[in-house]
Amino acid sequence: MKKWGRIISTHQSYKVKGQVEFEVETKNMRKIYGCLQPFLLSCFASLAFCSSRSIAGDTITLNQSVTDGKTLVSSGGTFELGFFSPNNSNNRYVGIWYKRIPVQTIVWVANRNDPITDSSGVLKLSKDGNLVLLNRLETVVWSTNVSKGENPVAQLLDSGNLVVRDDDTNLSLWQSFDHPTHTLLPGMKLGWNLKTGLNRFLTSWKNHDDPSTGSFTFGVDRRGYPQAFIWNGKGIEYRSGPWNGLQFSAVPEMGPNYILNFSFTSTADELYYSFSLKNDSYLSRLTMTSSGKLWRFLMMEDEKSESWSRFWFAPKDQCDSYEACGPYGICNASASLVCQCPTGFKPRDPQNWYLRDGSGGCVRKTEFGCQNGDYGFLKLQDMKVPDTSQAFVNESMSLQECEAACRRNCSCTAYANSKVTEGGTGCLYWTSELIDLRVYTEGGQYLYLRMAATDLGKMKF
């Protein structure tokens, strides 16, 4: 504003030009200022409008900060970090989103449960090495809450990972990939660091306009033979089945494709699922939505598309609902009567069963005689194996050894290979009721169900 004042004053000082010339010049300057005034006022009113530009590079040091309206951009220009407001909200959050696509897609939120209500937020490094978010009162509303670093820096990587590290030793102190919100990106781990007890899982937004913690979570369950679940609160909504060497047994769509690689790591130190891209021209993310759906999204980066393609989702049908047909009931989404009992079994509650309520499951027609060998195994194909939370597993056993182990245990109800690779390897067997069974048109595996020989129509063996 001082600049304009100096220009007007200069014209006023030149009386030799005449009063008319002075008035013309003064009037012109007022016109210019009048045109600029709305723009200048909007700058003061909305920093996000006038100052939406990145600070130097992708890194915050002790002498830098990210204020509302400023951003960090990863070195390759893939991701951006800054303040944002959801669709119909005035609350401000620190988040990470894709930089080069036209539709803003948030993949991570720092202060999801502690919004800032104005544009006063500041993201900075504290002297103790923590990345902190301050409000107008300079109160810490969010922090990385890690041990001290001597010379900390925070850097947004081109993977979408925000990392706090010691710049002298390059030792990582904290990373956003260890604290996901609702989205899994390529290279992220969904699961456990067994040495530290860290569990990485996805949690939905509360709703489309509110990134606070929602009702639905997706993560890896360590019990028995590990598998992934969607939980609604404490209740199970969906089960992926265990990793069978190629994919989760309940996700035949994960089979070999030209876009994505899938992996599941199980060691003494780590237990996690991850994915990567085969083709760098694609973007992909796995998101736990506020409606309880797990969506796999794809986009070709060079298409500049206004929307993501929905490549896969779960649960997708009645048979994806956990325990849809009760104990021993087999769900078949292609059948007119979705819930079916296997050979040798009958509905526990026939009336409700034929009214299409299969939650009661099935019971044996004849109990098998374990001690006298009056039983056999019914071979079921194209199956999603039962819930493995309580299953026994031995990865080194053959299928024949697995059968022998099941025969030796009178409580054993079924067995199967733990892996479908190399023609089938490893052993799974169950000693309780079989829960959450379904059949696929393709992509399942064999399951051997123990039952009385008379119901198999076979001789005693």
UniProtKB/TrEMBL annotation:
<keyword id="KW-0245">EGF-like domain</keyword>
<dbReference type="InterPro" id="IPR000858">
    <property type="entry name" value="S_locus_glycoprot_dom"/>
</dbReference>
<feature type="domain" description="EGF-like">
    <location>
        <begin position="315"/>
        <end position="351"/>
    </location>
</feature>
<keyword id="KW-0732">Signal</keyword>
<dbReference type="Pfam" id="PF08276">
    <property type="entry name" value="PAN_2"/>
</dbReference>
<protein>
    <recommendedName>
        <fullName>non-specific serine/threonine protein kinase</fullName>
        <ecNumber>2.7.11.1</ecNumber>
    </recommendedName>
</protein>
<dbReference type="GO" id="GO:0048544">
    <property type="term" value="P:recognition of pollen"/>
</dbReference>
<dbReference type="InterPro" id="IPR003609">
    <property type="entry name" value="Pan_app"/>
</dbReference>
<dbReference type="Pfam" id="PF00954">
    <property type="entry name" value="S_locus_glycop"/>
</dbReference>
<dbReference type="Pfam" id="PF01453">
    <property type="entry name" value="B_lectin"/>
</dbReference>
<dbReference type="InterPro" id="IPR036426">
    <property type="entry name" value="Bulb-type_lectin_dom_sf"/>
</dbReference>
<dbReference type="InterPro" id="IPR035446">
    <property type="entry name" value="SLSG/EP1"/>
</dbReference>
<dbReference type="GO" id="GO:0004674">
    <property type="term" value="F:protein serine/threonine kinase activity"/>
</dbReference>
<feature type="domain" description="Bulb-type lectin">
    <location>
        <begin position="57"/>
        <end position="177"/>
    </location>
</feature>
<keyword id="KW-1015">Disulfide bond</keyword>
<comment type="function">
    <text>Involved in sporophytic self-incompatibility system (the inability of flowering plants to achieve self-fertilization).</text>
</comment>
<dbReference type="InterPro" id="IPR001480">
    <property type="entry name" value="Bulb-type_lectin_dom"/>
</dbReference>
<feature type="domain" description="Apple">
    <location>
        <begin position="370"/>
        <end position="452"/>
    </location>
</feature>
<dbReference type="InterPro" id="IPR000742">
    <property type="entry name" value="EGF"/>
</dbReference>
